[in-house]
Amino acid sequence: MNKLYIGNLTENVTTVDLESLFKEWKIPFTGQFLVKTGYAFVDCPDDNSAMKAIDILSGKVELHGKSIEVEHSVPKRQRSRKLQIRNIPPHLQWEGRK
Fold first, then answer.
1. Is the pLDDT at 78 greater than 80, yes or no?
2. What InterPro entries does the annotation carry (predicted)?
3. Rounded CA separation 82/46 (Å)
4. pTM of the shown model
């Protein structure tokens, strides 16, 4: 999968900002950046380019004062829906129901 999700963006980030950032770090991309409020998507030509973007940029590079997140884009239907429950008192026990 070569489509990337770029998150934690400020609302004033533009396609030009993202193109400049990828060019600065010599990370190849194909097509246009699809920029929404707070996040964007872009395609990379191959898995090596996608992994390079994730390794170099995610959590390590700031854009407009915010550290960006870069990860593989996962279609909604393939996302897992996990529920985590915390702080359950020890006297309560799990009961499986069918």
1. no
2. Nucleotide-bd_a/b_plait_sf, RBD_domain_sf, RRM_dom
3. 30
4. 0.75
